[in-house]
C-alpha cells in the first residue's frame, strides 16, 4: 500500500469545493456516509482521476469507524436509485465519480494533466469500472473492454462535463489590432544615422550648375579665364 507523502511530507493536495456542505443531496447523507465520502475523496491513497485501490483497514484507521459502519456507508454512497451514485465500486477499486470533474486543479485539456490521468487509468486492472470512467470523461484511449454507453449519449455527457478551471481562450478579434500596433512601432523606430544616405547638393549632380558655380568662384578669386 503505497502512500505519496509529497515533497514536504504533508501529502498530496486535494481540493473539495465548500459548496458541498450546502448541497441538498449531500445533506441527506448521514454523518458516517459524509465522513466516508470525504475520506475517499481526500485519502492519501487517492489520485488525480479519483479512481484507485481502496482498503477498509485504511479507512478504519483514518476515520475511527468500524468496518461494519464503513461497508454500510459504501453501500449507501454507491446506490442512489433516483440519482447517479456518489461512488462506484468493483473488486477493490473505488471511483469517486465526480472527483475529477469538480477538481479545480486538474484540467483534462492540459496535455500534461491528461497524460498523467491516462497513465494512471491504464495502470489499473482491466475492469468495467475503469471502462465506465473512460466513457464518463470521454478519454480517447484504447481499452479492451467495450463501452456500455451508446456514442450519442456519451457525446452528450462529454459536453456537460467541465474539467476544472477553464483556461481563457485568446480573443481573435484583438489579434489584428496587435499586428497594427507592432507595424506602427516598427515604422516609428529611429533609423541609425549610419544607414542614412546623405543627399548630394544639386550642383554636384547637375553639370551645368556645377560649371556655373566654378566660374563664379574663379571670378571672385580673380583667376577667371577669358
Key words describing this protein structure:
mainly alpha; 5% strand; 10 helices; 2 domains; 226 residues
Provide a concise account of the structure shown.
This protein is mainly alpha-helical and 226 residues long. 45% of the residues lie in helices and 5% in strands.
Order of helices and strands: HHEHHEEHHHHHH
Helical stretch count?
A: 10
Pick out the low-confidence regions.
Answer: 162-170
Tell me, briefly, the overall form: elongated
Terminal-residue CA separation: 117 Å
Class based on secondary structure composition and strand pairing: mainly alpha
- The portion of residues assigned to helices is 40-55%
| Global Rg | 37 Å
Oligomer: single chain
- Average pLDDT, rounded to a whole number, is 79
Structural domains: how many: 2
The biggest beta sheet is recorded as: 3 strands, antiparallel
Number of DSSP strands?
3
Describe, in plain words, how this protein is organized in 3D.
There is one protein chain. This protein is mainly alpha-helical and 226 residues long. It has 2 domains: 18-159, no CATH class; 197-226. 45% of the residues lie in helices and 5% in strands. It contains 10 helices and 3 strands, in the order H-H-E-H-H-E-E-H-H-H-H-H-H. The chain has helices at residues 24-28, 31-42, 56-63, 67-78, 111-123, 128-136, 151-159, 175-188, 202-205, 207-221; strands at 51-53, 87-90, 93-96. It has a 3-stranded antiparallel β-sheet, with helices on both faces. A hairpin with a 2-residue loop joins strand 2 and strand 3. The longest helix has 15 residues, at 207-221. The N and C termini lie far apart (117 Å).
